[in-house]
Amino acid sequence: MITASFLGHAALLFRGSAGSLVCDPWFSTAPIYGNSSIRFPVAPVETEASFLEATHVYISHHHEDHFHVPSLDRLSRDVTIFIPAFEYVEHPRGRSMERTLKAMGFKSVVTLESFETVDIDIGERVRLTLVPSAKSRWHDWENSGLIVQTSEWTGVNLNDNLADEALLAQIRDRAPKVDVAFVPGSPSTEFPGAFDFSLREKLSLGRRKRDEIGQARLIIAGLDPTYMVPIAGDIAWHRPQDQFRNYVDKPTPTSLARRLIEEGLVDPGRFVMLAPGDGFDPRTGATTSLAGPVNYRGFRRRIRDVAREFLPWIEAHDSYMSDVGFDAAAYDALVPALNAYLPRLPVPCAPVRIDLLIVDDAGAPLRRLAVEASGDAVSARDRPVDDSDCDQEIVVPEAIWGQTFAGKVLRRDLFGLCINRQLKPFRIEVAALRYFITYYFDFGDISPWVRISQPDPLANLPEMRRLVGEFAPQFTLERLKPMYAPVPATGPGE
């Protein structure tokens, strides 16, 4: 029989007698997004062998919590890696995952087109079907999901791939009976914690975000899965100055469960919450627990306990980053290069503008880079520093901006690292342009550690390996038990 296990975040393990498939491995504790975020609950080192022994890997999309180079770097270069072909993306950016993996030395990188199927033999035959992004999506179109079909059960792994009714109908055509759906919980994002709101506003907006269940409701109606397992929501903020964001930005599976059960959308026995290392039987819903189910009451205190283990990493990583001043010549060269690289918007939109305001150590403005979209056209241009007639303004300290030119930080991470100001009422076009910027501002680079736009793509890998080897904390099962072992509870709650 093919067994299913959860390794944390979006990492799923499907194992047979002669091999295994791991999905979206974020296993190393190396933080993501410019050293801003970690995974919580973290995976105990006892689950390491299951990950390292994988014969096949599937990666859904390029975001660092799914495409995690410090984790991938630990794998044998002979492993077979499946990635979406993104054949509907004409821009070369759509091939960034493949180029990055090949630069790292992986020998077998297999691209799958939309709804293409492939059979793998891991002791039994398992059929994999690539699920594309929904055609109605106005953002994050480089995403995917996976249908996993064995002789005894069928699972659908949607990770971050937000669906619509049409896409779910296409999945149902290929998988009429879904035993388990691995679905996205409420996302952990830079909103509202990175925005220039009052703390009261952030708490209110955070509660509203945690209560959003639209995607889960859609999946239940479209797939009618026997069991639902929430994944891809366990991101936390570990730097001391950012830990307040765990009160406003971090949802938990219990909040999702509570809403679904209260609205009668799912029976309590059909909503299955797993901790890292737990196993799950899609035929019966039975679970095997490594450390006991996570009790999310008091989890912010336990995040603080875990975050203390990252203080040496923070200090070492900050030293590696070092202060880099603003380079006016590099900035001036960036603007025409961006305009030559940026494609058309996939979905035309009303006029919208987001500015990156670069400031010096005293907060005085140095330059203003405006990104504007109208219809399907996008352009970048330098504007006067006092021209703040934009929808959003991202205030970027010159040291952080300089680090993007030093090749140590991705420009896509500026949204999470810097203060975001909403200067006009929010519109959906603002979110669409934000996603567009995160996809194209780095000229195809999707990791700070492997820069395929540079002459030497692997220049950062030696330092990454040093930092990981010396400073990435390791957590044994024994150490983690008091941090997230269960306390008796009567039902879902926080």
Uncertain segments are 487-494
| Helix percent band | 25-40%
The radius of gyration over CA amounts to: 22 Å
Count every beta strand, where a strand is a DSSP E run of 2 or more residues.
21
Shape: globular
C-alpha end-to-end distance: 36 Å
Mean pLDDT: 91
Largest sheet: 8 strands, mixed
Strand content: 15-25%
In DSSP terms, counting alpha (H) and pi (I) runs of 4 or more, how many helices?
16
The secondary-structure class comes to: alpha/beta
Descriptive account of the structure:
- Helices cover 29% and strands 23% of the residues.
- The chain has 16 helices and 21 strands.
- Residues 487-494 have low confidence and may be disordered.
- The protein is of the alpha/beta class and 494 residues long.
- Strand 5, helix 2 and strand 6 (80-84) form a beta-alpha-beta unit.
- Helix 4 runs parallel beside helix 6 (214-223) and helix 10 packs antiparallel against helix 15.
- 48% of the residues are buried.
- The chain has helices at residues 48-52, 69-72, 96-103, 165-174, 199-210, 214-223, 245-248, 253-262, 299-308, 311-321, 328-341, 398-405, 414-417, 428-440, 461-471, 477-484, and strands at 3-8, 11-16, 19-23, 37-39, 56-58, 80-84, 108-112, 117-121, 125-132, 144-149, 154-157, 180-184, 227-231, 235-237, 279-280, 287-288, 349-359, 365-375, 377-383, 392-397, 419-422.
- An 8-stranded mixed sheet has the order 7-6-5-3-2-1-15-16, covered by helices on one side. The protein has a 6-stranded mixed sheet with strand order 8-9-10-11-12-13, with helices on one face. A 5-stranded mixed sheet has the order 19-18-17-20-21.
